[in-house]
Amino acid sequence: MAHVETEAASATTAAALTRTIELTVNGEPRRGDAEPRVLLAHFLRGTLGLTGTHIGCDTSSCGACTVLMDGVPVKSCTMLAVQAEGRQVTTVEGLETSEGLHPMQNAFHEEHGLQCGFCTPGMMLAAIALLEENPDPSEEEIRWALSGNVCRCTGYQNIVKAVQRAAADMREGV
Questions:
Q1: Predicted pLDDT of residue 58
Q2: Which of 48, 56, 107, 151 counts the most CB atoms within 10 A of its CB?
Q3: SS (H, E, C) 80-118
Q4: What superfamily would CATH give domain 2-94?
Q5: pTM, rounded to two decimals
Q6: Percent helix, strand and coil across the chain, each rounded to 5?
Q7: Domain limits of the chain?
Q8: What is the distance in angstroms between the CA of the first residue and the CA of the last residue of the chain?
């Protein structure tokens, strides 16, 4: 009997710790319940069903979990979901519009800037943040901006070419 009471008490405690988190994701108001210990990456994937945010290392080393928070790249595997309360979050799912692919998505496709695609969402979001700050970056600036994102498949050359192409396309309004 004591075991049943302990389980009930644990369930009550867990429910009491759950918070409703309200934020804007990809331009849409969203809300979901999560315990304060839940990582933003898990909240986006599990609670909101946005599986484009990948989890590769859980230590912020690989960048596969990169999303934009208020336009700034953050590693969602080391950020708590409650820290996103009231904030603007952009995931890879928010890049495509009714008019088609975002110029960054198109450039990654056209320049073969991906192989397996696991790192691609984080790479694209980090690159978009760079281009918001610097619409005409040098190769060195692109490599520096992407240095927090690891690709295990490519030599990065096509990723850099994709960012350069996206920058040119975005400057030209393509």
A1: 79
A2: 107
A3: EHHHHCCCEEECHHHCCECCECCHHHHHHHHCCCCCCCC
A4: Beta-grasp domain (3.10.20.30)
A5: 0.89
A6: 45, 15, 40
A7: 2-94, 103-171
A8: 68
H-run or E-run covering 22: strand 19-25
Q: Measure the CA–CA gap between 59 and 36, rounded to whole angstroms.
A: 18
Are the beta carbons of 92 and 124 closer than 8 angstroms?
Answer: yes
Please tell me the predicted confidence (pLDDT) of residue 59: 87
C-alpha–C-alpha distance, residues 12 and 3, integer Å: 14
Task: Identify whether the C-beta of residue 76 lies closer than 8 Å to the C-beta of residue 41.
Answer: yes
Architecture of domain 103-171: Orthogonal Bundle (1.10)
Cα-flanking dihedrals φ and ψ of residue 50, to 5°? -100, 85
* The two structure tokens encoding residue 43: 């909240």
